[in-house]
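This is your field. Have a critical look at both lines of this record:
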Amino acid sequence: MSRNSERRAKSAFAFLFALTASSCQQAASREPTVTEAEQKLKYHIDNLAGMGVGNIRHLKVTDPGNRDIKCTKGRVKRTYGITGDKNDPKKDDPSLTAVDLTNSLYGRLITQVAKYKLTHFEGGKPEKTMHNPETRTNITIIVTTERKVTIQGYTDCLRPA
């Protein structure tokens, strides 16, 4: 192989490598649409509430979402919420407090559903708010002393679908 051919091959390889790295970086940093984020939000909340993870009974959708809420600069967000209870005598430990149940649901969310970072909580209060920077979703878990569970979520302000 001549020196000229070798230089061209190295240049072509370097160009392809740079092009591939650039496209991977763009794909990884692409912001989801509000519809994509809402789908993830609903999936995360529904998986936390049921399917053996949260074992929340008497589930009721309190906010079905599917509507754009205006933000600034032409962006929108969407919401989703459910309620239920943790009063199953066969599956739920009645000695757990509302704070214990909130902590348990938070732990199940981050270990069995998706990686969320805690953004707001006050010690001794049965409420936690968390954010997932990858899916651009936020979830708040609230448990009352009567063991009623409310899980509310919203997307970040994102570009419309």
About this structure: The CA atoms of residues 42 and 80 lie 7 Å apart. The chain has three helices and eight strands. The helical segments are 3-29, 34-49, 98-113. Strands lie at 57-63, 69-70, 76-77, 79-85, 117-121, 127-132, 137-143, 148-155.
